[in-house]
Description:
By secondary structure, the chain is mostly helical. It is built from two helices and no strands. The chain is elongated.
Amino acid sequence: MDKETASENPSPSGDKRWDDPENVAMVERGIKDSKSGKVNKYSLDELKEMMCV
């Protein structure tokens, strides 16, 4: 990639995961759900309890 071409990849390391539109869409849906309150929030202790660790 030359200096005149901007990358749409948000990863500073150029992680290829972000080149997959499905992965980007999944993250964008998660952000939208979070902003609209469609999420469940758990403490670290609650997560550990649910995972039996």
